[in-house]
Q: What sequence folds into this?
């Protein structure tokens, strides 16, 4: 390999590394399903199903599409599923995250039920967004919408003594603390409690420099002398992505991750390529094309010399 090509390739590698380092801490979109968070609310619905008339909350008010269901992310949803058609025909209820009309791995899907065999079945709402629910046997004549929203309130206990970190309760404080999932542009009620009597604060470290910057949302101080041990803080941001949250006083000991999803965009079928990874992709492909062109020209020139 010629030394000029080597130099070009190492410059390209350095450029890619710099771009990667710049892109990853801030704004990188998480891939795949969201991580587990502590279960929040519970919701329960009785759904009556018919292959002829669709879904409904009662056996005399079914329709297709059926009723729009609203639940919270990470909540346990209990469905009582009742078939109102003749006994022989079987029904199922599933959330069609990728909208391909069949239950896939990772999509909540109930056991079969039929007239005389109603079931009570639980699932965890583990994707944020609005999706179609269906019967797998009658995917188009028995469907409806379900909206899974991010939580709008969290209670967080913070401590730097003993086991430093954050937790949803005083006996489970750790670092990293629990992953929070919130929706951009929505006010989030945070109840922040000092579990060790020391002064703490909560902020989102958008640029991941472990310091609270003026542009980063931060709660009032809580705990310690002169401060309330509990504060209620309304967090609101329009910035989406995955970031660290930290204590302003103990940023490296007390931290966790927060995922801020776009309003109403959901995460159906995974995340789109973000702006920064997209730019990186274009740069990488461009550099590869340049390197190949250079190599071809260099080898042609070498052949001509011979
Ligand atoms: Cu602290």
A:
């Amino acid at each position: 390999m010629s030394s000029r090509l080597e130099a070009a390739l190492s410059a390209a590698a350095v450029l890619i590394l710099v771009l990667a380092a710049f892109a990853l801490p801030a704004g990188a979109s998480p891939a795949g399903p969201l991580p587990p968070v502590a279960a929040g609310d519970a919701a329960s619905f009785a759904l009556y199903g018919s292959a002829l008339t669709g879904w409904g909350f009662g056996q005399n008010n079914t329709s297709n599409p059926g009723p729009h269901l609203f639940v919270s992310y990470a909540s346990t949803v209990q469905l009582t599923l009742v078939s109102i058609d003749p006994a022989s025909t079987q029904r199922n209820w599933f959330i069609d995250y990728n909208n391909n009309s069949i239950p896939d791995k990772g999509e909540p899907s109930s056991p079969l039920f039929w007239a005389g065999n109603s079931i009570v079945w639980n699932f965890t709402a583990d994707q944020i967004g609005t999706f179609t629910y269906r019967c797998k046997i009658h995917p188009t004549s028995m469907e409806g919408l379900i909206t899974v929203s991010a939580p709008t309130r969290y209670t967080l206990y913070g401590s730097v003594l003993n086991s430093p970190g954050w937790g949803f309760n005083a006996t489970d404080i750790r670092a990293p603390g629990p992953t929070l999932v919130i929706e951009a542009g929505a006010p989030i009620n945070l109840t922040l409690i000092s579990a060790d009597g020391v002064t703490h604060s909560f902020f989102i470290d958008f640029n991941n420099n472990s310091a609270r910057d003026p542009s980063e949302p931060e709660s009032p101080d809580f705990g310690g002398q002169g401060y309330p041990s509990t504060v209620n803080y309304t967090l609101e941001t329009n910035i989406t992505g995955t970031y660290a949250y930290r204590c302003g006083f103990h940023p490296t000991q007390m931290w966790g991750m927060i995922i801020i999803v776009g309003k109403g965009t959901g995460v159906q079928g995974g995340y789109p390529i973000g702006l920064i990874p997209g730019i990186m992709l274009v740069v990488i492909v461009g550099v590869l094309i340049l390197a190949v062109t250079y190599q071809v020209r260099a080898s042609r020139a070498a052949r001509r010399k011979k």
Notes: The longest strand covers residues 42-50. Confidence is low (pLDDT under 50) at residues 17-33, 264-277. Residues 95 and 133 are 4 Å apart (CA to CA). Residues 158, 160, 200, 247, 249-250, 254 surround copper (II) ion (CB under 6 Å).
